[in-house]
Amino acid sequence: MNNRALGTEYEGMAENYLKQYGVRIVEKNFRNRFGEIDLIGYDGEFLVFFEVKYRKSESSGYGEDAVNAKKRHNICKVSDYYRSIHGIGDFTPMRYDVIAVNKGQIRWIKNAFEYC
After folding, report:
1. Which candidate, 24, 27, 43, places its Cα nearest to that of 109?
2. pTM of this structure
3. Is residue 86 situated within a structural domain?
4. Do residues 23 and 70 lie in contact, with contact meaning Cβ atoms separated by under 8 Å?
5. What pLDDT score does 16 carry?
6. pLDDT of residue 114
7. What does DSSP say about strands 46-55 and 24-32: parallel, antiparallel, or unpaired?
8. In a domain, 80, yes or no
9. Is there a contact between 34 and 81 (Cβ–Cβ < 8 Å)?
10. Considering the domain boundaries, does residue 116 fall inside one?
11. DSSP letters of the chain?
């Protein structure tokens, strides 16, 4: 299975996991020239931008470790564009979360990083 197909599979797994906890997904694989956000949804009143990261084994590190400063910066730029085209103002509460899939286990890291 190629990396894109594998990514799609784990993003689907993450989406199903989040729905079990009441998250309403409104967008998948939202892209612009700065990058991509895997999932966008609402957790209660919070607009949440989710980055899904998979690691087959701990020797590759943990999924959450792959969200480095450059990746966070790009996610913030993409989220700005998303909010702009959808008329979502600065007063809407929002978060940046990571869904880490490590060896088949899902971990939801809320507030994984601050807006940058």
Report:
1. 43
2. 0.90
3. yes
4. no
5. 94
6. 92
7. unpaired
8. yes
9. yes
10. no
11. --HHHHHHHHHHHHHHHHHHTT-EEEEEEEEETTEEEEEEEEETTEEEEEEEEEESSGGG--GGGG--HHHHHHHHHHHHHHHHHTT--TTS-EEEEEEEEETTEEEEETT-S---
